Structure formats: structure tokens, C-alpha cells
Amino acid sequence: MKIDKNQLLRFTTAGSVDDGKSTLIGRLLYDSKSIFEDQLAAVKNSSKQKGIEGVDLAMFTDGLKDEREQGITIDVAYRYFTTPKRKFIIADTPGHIQYTRNMVTGASTANAAVVLIDARHGVIEQTKRHTFIASLLNIPHIIVCVNKMDLVSYSEETFNSIVEQFEEFSSKLLIKDVRYIPISALNGDNVVNRSENMAWFQGSPMLHELETLHISSDINKIDARFPVQTVLRPQREGFEDYRGYAGRIASGIYRVNDEVAVLPSGFTSKIKTINVGETEVEEAFAPMSVAMTLEDDIDISRGDMIVKKNNQPELSQEFDVMLCWLNNAPLKSRTKYTIMHTSNEQKAVIKEVVYKMDVNTFKRNEEDKDLTMNDIARVRLKTSHRLMVDSYRDNRSTGSIILVDESTKETVAAGMVV
User: Fold this and answer.
1) Cα-flanking dihedrals φ and ψ of residue 156, to 5°?
2) What is the band of 233 on the pLDDT scale with cuts at 50, 70, 90?
3) 63 with 92: CB under 8 angstroms?
4) What is the pTM of this model?
5) Which class for 149: exposed (0-12), middle (13-18), buried (19 or more C-beta within 10 A)?
6) Range scoring the smallest mean pLDDT among 27-41, 241-255, 369-383
7) Per-residue b/e over 384-395, b at no fewer than 16 CB within 10 Å?
8) N or C: less crowded end of the chain, CB within 10 Å?
9) Which pLDDT belongs to residue 68?
């Protein structure tokens, strides 16, 4: 299978505190030679000051002062690197329970999640918590890295036992693709290079798995959704009558002469032209940014959506979402929020908290309706106007929303349409 070397893979790391996430990313960057010389010199100097011989790999990602002092990750640290086969963006997310919202932030756009498990402790509550969130966010690929294998004498039996533990609970979740790798991030076993200490493992090192993950099919190419971000009226010579609708295709494929409907008005037309920059093309697909013109003069503005005539999202003012509460202040009943969905902004209220989810046991709590930071719950939203929504499972772009506090302008929650 050929991989496009310009294709970008976003992946997030997840796991409990001290499972070695930052060390793993440091090892990945260090062994793949993706560290600048000045960064390497600075980390070597900091490591020396801490009395560590060589390089403290975790310091390549621990960018905040509190993190350097405490040796933990509390913010989402994004790192970019590239290999001859692919480009990557890593979201290094926190392990502490109180930073679950940061894990949600880092995982929301990820193609894959790397879940770390300490070989000495096996599957613990935080493992289940983070895997549940990865499943909730519909991350297509999970790579389970059983770390610190050097501390269990590279035992195949220990690794197999942890795989069994993970499969036992993950079978209850909707996860499409799970892979297992025994590693030692500190020593570099099976991270970039194959381990000589675990000849019994016949799989590939972690970097090879990331480089060869097939992610093209993860994008929904069936349901055509084009949220309009702006209307282009150049008003210059040769373009006096040009009216283009610009935005990024959320999903699906569009071709010239396709019959389309404009929502929420419902008016129909055909695609006249599609432009990618200055170039006119016959077809375009997600996630390309394009400008379209239609054969008919229809009143279209930001927040409208151009879809295929025979394949339309649900038009609704009331729908259920799985909501991750991100704000320090708890939910106040009947409070008005700004809901942001694709390029559309409306007013919204939370009509009802249907149930809260215990992400450690996967049980639903229908009695407790109070939402505080890091809580995950199914809620019923009502918006001021109809939104064009799909189920998040079918379409991550048109199935996701965020809620913003009108007075403080803070993002208070992120949601996935059920």
C-alpha cells in the first residue's frame, strides 16, 4: 500500500500519570532525528542541571514551567515532526484526572490515539477512562503501547496478559482498529527501531505503524457536506457577476453539474464551477478548501450548507449530544449559550441532562444532573434556529458542536451529536 508522503497524520497520546508519554514522544523525536540542535543542546543542559546523565527525553515536550518543576504534563503540548514517509502532529495530553478536558481537546481532531500502559500496573481506571474518551470521539485507530517492558524483564507473558485485560473491556466500545506493541520508551525498544530484547514480538515498531496507518478511508466520502464560510464578490474586471461560495468541504465529493440543495432554505441548483485557489477543477473532496458557483442565483450566506439533493443532514432545532463539560464553573440550568456548529452560530439552551456517564465503569447515572468540569453527559439541546446536523459517528465535522459562554466568551463545553 502506497502512503502519500505529504499526508498529515494527527495522533494523540493518552495514559495515566508517569506512564511515560512525554518520554515516548521524546524518544520518537530523538531517534527519528527530528530535534533541532539548539533544542537538543538546551535539553542536555537542563538534564545536566537536574543531575541526569545524557538526555531527559521527557523535556522535549514538557514546555510549561510547572511541568518542568513537577515532571508532569498539564497542558496539551503539540509537536510537529516529519519523516521521509509522512508528516505528523502529536498532541501530548495530560494524565491527571483533573485534566481530562485537555485530553478531549487533544483527541478531537486525531486520526489515531497512542494509549500507554505501564507494564508493571496493567490496565487501570485511567486507561479505561482515556480509551472510552477516544472511543467517544470516534478516533479510528488505537495503538496500545505497553511501556516499561524493561522493568518486567521484557516478559512476553506480562505483555499477553495486558493485551487480554485491554481486549476484555474495549470489546464493549466502538473501536475499529486496535494494535498492540511492547515498548521501552526510556531505552528505545520498539519505538523507532525493532527491539533486540523482545525477539518474541513479530509486529512492527511504533513509528512504522504510524507511518503506514491507512487514514484516507477514515474521511466520510459518501455524505457531501459543504458549510459556507463566506461569499466571494470580487467586484473587479472580468468578475462583475461572480458570486462564489467559499469554505472547506467537511465530507463527501463534489463535481461540476452535481444537483445540490442549499440548507436551511431547501432551494436546489447545479454546481457551475469549482475553484481551488486560482485553478478551476472538475471535482473536489474533503478536506479541500474551495470556492463554488451555482447555476442559479440563490441567497446564500455564512452558516448555510450546500449538500447533495438526494443526501441531506437532519434539520433540527432540538437534538441530543454527548457533552464534555470543560469549564471551571458548573452548568446553570436554562442559561443561554452560543452554539458553534461548522460555520454556523446560534443561541442555544440545555433543555435537559438525560444522564451522566461514569467513564470508569461505563454506567449511566440518571439521578445526578449537575455538570461540573470534566463531566461527560448526554444532554438535550434546543437552538434558536435549525441546524444541519449528522450523527458524530457518521461525520465528525457536522456532528460536533461547541458551547460558548455569552458573557465571558469562554468555551464551556464540546459535544458530539448522538
Assistant:
1) -65, -35
2) confident
3) no
4) 0.83
5) buried
6) 27-41
7) eeebbbbebeeb
8) N
9) 41
| Helix 156-170 / helix 125-136 crossing angle, nearest 10 deg | 50
280, part of any domain: yes
Verify that 70 and 213 share a domain, yes or no: yes
Mode of pairing for the β-strands spanning 336-341 and 344-358: antiparallel
Whether 20 contacts 118, CB under 8 Å:
yes
Task: Tell me if the bond preceding 140 is cis, omega within 30° of 0.
Answer: no
β-pair partners for 181? 145
d(C-alpha 374, C-alpha 391), whole Å: 22
Instruction: Among 201, 218, 235, give the residue marking a domain's end.
Output: 218
- Distances in Å between the alpha carbon of 197 and those of 30, 114, 156, 208, 295? 20, 22, 11, 18, 65
Domain that holds residue 367: 314-417
Do 290 and 384 reside in the same domain of the chain?
Answer: no
pLDDT in tens, 128-145: 878 888 888 889 899 999
More confident residue, 91 or 327: 327
Q: Greater confidence, 280 or 106?
A: 280
Q: Is residue 3 part of a domain?
A: no
CA distance 388 to 317: 9
What's the pLDDT tens digit per position in 293-313? 999 999 999 999 999 999 999
Same domain, 342 and 404: yes
